[in-house]
Amino acid sequence: LALVMVPLLYGAVYLYANWNPYGNLNQIDAALVVEDAGATSSDGIELQAGRKVADSLVDGNVFNWKPVPTAEEADAGVSSGKYAFALKIP
User: Fold this and answer.
1) pLDDT tens string for the chain (90 positions)?
2) Nearest-angstrom CA–CA distance, 4 and 8
């Protein structure tokens, strides 16, 4: 009986642990630094490409993005464990 139950229990726990690895990514805190100052086109239109990328990341709800003002603060947060990783948009 033990020869059947131990592998069965091990397999069940393994499957449960790996069933939906992407389902809870939105609970992972990630720092987001936007250093893009933007630009103005020759037509006088203001371009904010970095902000658009950041907004689409936040709206995507894949990770729990936390806006951080500086790269140094983001690095400190990653080092301390506050954030899992940081993304810097230059």
Assistant:
1) 778 899 999 999 999 888 888 888 999 999 999 999 989 988 989 999 999 999 999 999 899 999 999 999 999 999 999 999 999 999
2) 6
Strand 39-40 and strand 46-47: the pairing is antiparallel
DSSP structure class, residue 66: E
With respect to residue 48, please indicate whether it lies within any of the assigned structural domains.
yes
For the entire predicted model, the pTM comes to 0.73
In a domain, 63, yes or no: yes
**How many domains does one find in the chain?**
1
**In terms of Cα–Cα distance, which of 68, 59, 64, 63 is closest to 88?**
68
Structure tokens at 46: 């203001």
Domain of 73 in residue numbering reads as 23-89
